[in-house]
Amino acid sequence: PRAHHKSINMQSTLPASWYREPGFYQLERRAIFSKSWILVSHIHQFNEPGKYARYEMAGYPFFIIKDRAGNINAFLNICRHRAFPIVHENEGKAFVLSCKYHGWSYSMNGNLAKAPRFDHVEDFDKEEYKLYKVHSHVDRLGFFWVNLDAAEKPTLSWEEQFGGVDTQPRLENFDMSDYEYDHTWSMEGKFNWKTLIENYNECYHCPTAHPGLAPFFKGNKQMNYGLEKYWVAHLGAKGEERSGSVSPTYMFPNASVTLTPVFFYMMSIVPTSATTSLMRYEVYRSKSATPEQVKEKLDFFSQVESEDKWLANGSQANLNSDTYMTGPFHPDVEEAVVYVIGRVKGMLHEHVDEEKKRGAEWWPARRGPVQATKSSAEQDEAFCRGVCENSALRGGSAPEGLAW
User: I need a surface site. Which of 56, 211, 281, 361 has the fewest CB within 10 A?
Assistant: First the structure.
C-alpha cells in the first residue's frame, strides 16, 4: 500500500450491532440527523409560488414550499395544534396550508392565518404558533439543504461541513440553468442506511456486481480523488478537473448528486428504522436532451441502483443474524468508506460526550413548548421520563416493577 494510506491499514468495519440495534439508531437520529446539513432537493423543483414537496428524514417530517415573494422555505410537517400533518401529497401546489384535522391554516411563509374558535381564548397568541421553521441553505448550484436543529443558530454551519462542494472545478462546465425537474422515484430497502452509503463510497465491488460500470474506469480514473470536510468527490482523474463528464459527489450523511450532460439525479438514503431505508431519487433533465437520451441514461443508472439494493439487502440480512461482527477494510480501494465512517463515529462520540455532561439525552431537533404552557408541559414530560427511565418500559419488555 502507498505510504499515506498506512494509517488505515487493516482497519476493521463497524461492528454489526451498529447496523441493527434500535437504540443505536435513535442515537444516530439525535447525533447526526438532528444536527447535520442534509441535501434534499434543488430549486428547479420549486419553479412557481405554492409549489411544495414533502419529505421525511430519519423520522423527522418536513416540507419545502415557495412563497409569493419567491422565497423557498422549509417547515416541519406538523400542525402546531395537535401535530397532524399539514401536507399529505409527495408533491403539489397550495397557496393556503390547511390542516384537515381542526381547520387551522397557515400562509406559505408559515404564519398562522386561522385557528377556529381560538380568537377569544385567553393567553393565545397566534405569533407563538407559526409552523416550525427548518433551517435551509441554497448553494451556488441551486441545491437545497436543510438542518433540523431547533436552535436559533445550528450547531454546525453549512460552510463548516460543505464549504467548497458547490465550487468544485470539475463542475464548472455544467450549466445548471439548462436543467429542469422531471420526476421522483424510490425503492424500499431492507438495510441500515450506512450499509448502502458504504456501498456507494467504494467501487471495489464494481467489477463483480456492476459489469456495466467498467467503461467509467478506463485510463487513470479513480473512484475517489477528493475527501473534503463532509463530502467525497468520485469518478475523476487528477488531470480532468474540468472534464464536464459524469461527476458524482457524496454528501454526508446520506445523499449524493450525479451530474451528467443529459440529466442529473440526487440520491437520498432515508433511514426508516434501524434495519430499513428508502432509496429516494430526484431526477432533473437537460432541456436540450431528448426523451430517448434521458431514458437510456436513466435506465442504466436505475439498473446500477437496483444491483446495489440487492447487495445491501443481502449484507444486512447477515448483519441481523448475530453471526458476523467485523471484517477488514482495504486501505486503498475502500479509503472513502473509512473516511465516511470516521465522520459517523466522530459525530456519535461527540454527541454522547455532550449527553454525559447534560446527564440526559439531547434531541437537537426537539421543539419546546410556548411560554403560556411551558410549566405544565415540562412537568408532564418529566413525569413520563421518570416512569420510562425507572422501569422496563425503557427496554420494551415486561416490567419487573416500577421505581415506586
Answer: 211
